[in-house]
Amino acid sequence: MPANLVLRSSLVFIAITVFAAAQEPFQPKLTPRTITATKQVTLFNGLERQLLEAVQKKDQAGMEAMLGEDFEIAMPGADPLAGDDWVDSVMAIEFVLKSFAIRQMSVADLGDSAIVKFERQQLATFKGQSQSGKFFVVDLWKKSADSWKLASRYVAAVRTLPLTPKLQPKPTGKE
Is residue 174 pLDDT above 80, yes or no? Predict the structure, then answer.
């Protein structure tokens, strides 16, 4: 075999080996990392906790100080509830908020207002009936002077669905 052909074959082999190695997927080293909350999430998480703690402690003045003048709460299948009526219902002796947790919060900062979405888990009773569960909450907060006021709240119970919904059978045309 001529030396020129051997050299060329060797160079092709080396080039293929180098390019093939470059095609191998890069596996980054996995290192756990902590994801920190944004400034807005930290702020509104504190406000939401403050509001729920006021409900727990039956601190009506503290609660009302956080609500806007036209505050209302809406839930699926119900008429909107005026802020005064909502405050009366959660301040009633028959309502007991035993514990709560706020998870998966996100905040859309709109300057003088913010949309805050989160999941709330709670243990609560009203007139001895369980009001416990998971709820998806969407709050609209508005800036008022140098503080934030809750303007509107939307709450829906979180229901778990089966992994595969039952589908209607396809019509065969023989019915």
Answer: no
